[in-house]
Amino acid sequence: RHLAPFLCLADFEAAARRRLPRQIYGYYAGAAETCQSFQANAASFRSYELVPRVLADVSARSARTTLFGTTYDAPFGIAPMGLSGLATFEGELVLARAATQAGIPAIVSATSLMPLERVATQGGARWFQAYLPGEDARIEAMVDRVEAAGYDTFVLTADVPVPANRENNVRTGFSIPLQPSLRLLWDGLSRPHWLGATWLATFLRHGVPHFENMDAFRGPPILSRHVVRAIGARDQLSWRHLELIRRRWPGRLILKGVLSAEDAVQAREHGADGVIVSNHGGRQLDGARPALAALPAIAEVAGPMRVMVDGGIRRGSDVLKALALGAHFVFVGRPFLFAAAARGQDGVRHAIRLLLAEIERDMALLGVTRIEALTRAHVERAPWAA
Ligand code: FNR
């Protein structure tokens, strides 16, 4: 019954906002500068219209999707999100468990507060997302750590050479490292549920949260100034490093944050097995195009690579549009974090169920029975957008 108010993914945000301290809600919900790219993500889905086919006998339909030899129960997964552990107690495990129960992948973030080895004990898909400095020795050590933990898919996020300009974080008083302040204290005290069930529970169980996955060893606590040094020189990362990872990493290698067809070709030539077309949820370069706009040209040059996409996907119809435009799979970020903040693991399970139900219903309404049957013929650019 506590899930009854949530009818679609968008419904979780208001509940999360009530539960979370302003600083943390602002960090999750926010984007860079003017939010042009963030808003363009949502607008890009509205700029395509579906072309339903009728009388197609859609009685036997399934949204199951095979990606890299694994069959998932839905064509979407949970995008990597840093600091998920501040949404709810052991948020990283909550997301991983909910995804595993639902038969979809969740990508563990480099800036999560739970060791990647611990998340791996949840079973399910084993996808790790790394932020790497342009330093060979540190890259090799990180690749080795991820492999030793049993992961099979390594996602390198490439659109964060420098931290983005997110002014709303400055305004609310959120920073990395977290700066203890009276404002933060007051905000915590005015959200007693979060303070007790998330922050205190975490502290009692694990102590001060650390960045656990930025390097081959445990990183610094989230309150420490050493965080900045631990991140290292990401602005020196180059295609040469992707090649280095390719030589050392035996599993699947995915490049995340690609928006140009030329870069997709480079990724392919440097040995990537896939790309995630993404503008990082509008959180990095403000003004960067939405993933959906970049998708068709990238799908065309991808060759054997799998093409995935994220950013602004909120409805089953959005998922179908992305798949029809050439994506093999999609990822969804913020709504699952809000669901975790609002109702914990049950909330995330419910959010996954809602999105899957929308996809299955829309497949019937569109006249398709299998995900692979979606083609360019199922979408048209809206006349006003063309
Ligand atoms: C992110 N994202 C992200 N991406 C990444 O590669 N590593 C990370 O650690 C993070 N951290 C992160 C934190 C938070 C709070 C958010 C909202 C996002 C980006 C994420 O993987 C994804 O690209 C976008 O969130 C997708 O957009 P939507 O679905 O949130 O609109």
Automatic annotation (TrEMBL):
It is an enzyme of class 1 (oxidoreductase). Residues 1-384 form the FMN hydroxy acid dehydrogenase domain. Its EC number is 1.1.2.3. CDD domains: alpha_hydroxyacid_oxid_FMN (cd02809). PROSITE patterns: FMN_HYDROXY_ACID_DH_1, FMN_HYDROXY_ACID_DH_2. The keyword Transmembrane helix does not apply. Keywords: Oxidoreductase. GO terms for molecular function: L-lactate dehydrogenase (cytochrome) activity. InterPro entries: Aldolase_TIM, Alpha-hydoxy_acid_DH_FMN, FMN-dep_DH, FMN_HAD, FMN_hydac_DH_AS. It comes from the Bacteria. Its cofactor is FMN. Pfam families: FMN_dh. Belongs to the FMN-dependent alpha-hydroxy acid dehydrogenase family. This is L-lactate dehydrogenase (Cytochrome). It comes from Ancylobacter vacuolatus.
